[in-house]
Amino acid sequence: MAEVHPTATVYPGTVLGENVRVLENAVVGKQPALGPKSTAKRDPLPPTEIGDGTIVSTGAIVFAGSTIGAGCILGDQSCVRERVTIADDVIVGRGSLVENDTTIGSGTRIQAEAYITAYSTLEEDVFIAPCVVTTNDNFMGRTEKRKALMKGPTIRRGARVGGGAILLPGIEVGEEAFVGAGAVVTKDVPARKVVVGSPARVLRDVADEELLENQP
Q1: CB neighbours (10 Å) of residue 141?
Q2: Which of 99, 142, 162, 177 shows the greatest Cβ crowding within 10 Å of its Cβ?
Q3: What is the pLDDT of residues 6-31, one digit of tens each?
Q4: How far apart are CA 27 and CA 108, in angstroms?
């Protein structure tokens, strides 16, 4: 019952749920090609699984070994790498990249041209604005030490990250926290706090009216 456009490529073994749509020139189930110095795992990958009603939009790519939940939208020219788990009702905006070994909770929205680095965790109902950049390597590719310490950010339930913000490796953005546009986040952000600037600093509490529990 899935709809696959004639120009799309769906690799053997891929599991498509009911009413999945794979649009023009999309690729699902692609095997990764890793460089000799890549830190990504090289274990055999299981087939890609796409949940009911999900749309893989024009030119989007989903690699093997990833699981996409039901009711998701993977925007035009977005890319989801291997061993990524995306829960239900997630939006990955146009041109955004979700790197390997990342987990994304239900209801999360990732806007256009965002970069979600490998080994990141985004919990439920997170909002990532356009052009956000996350990072996972404080050594930028040098020294063996980096391999044990490589880790993307953890963004807790209901947190929001403003346009063009940069999150450094391994930091945690607390539940319902708010990172202002253009902020450079160098340390953990407390829950329900607004942080702004470079380096990011606490400005105030998140207003009660903005909390998830107070939304209609």
Answers
A1: 8
A2: 177
A3: 999 999 999 999 999 999 999 999 99
A4: 23
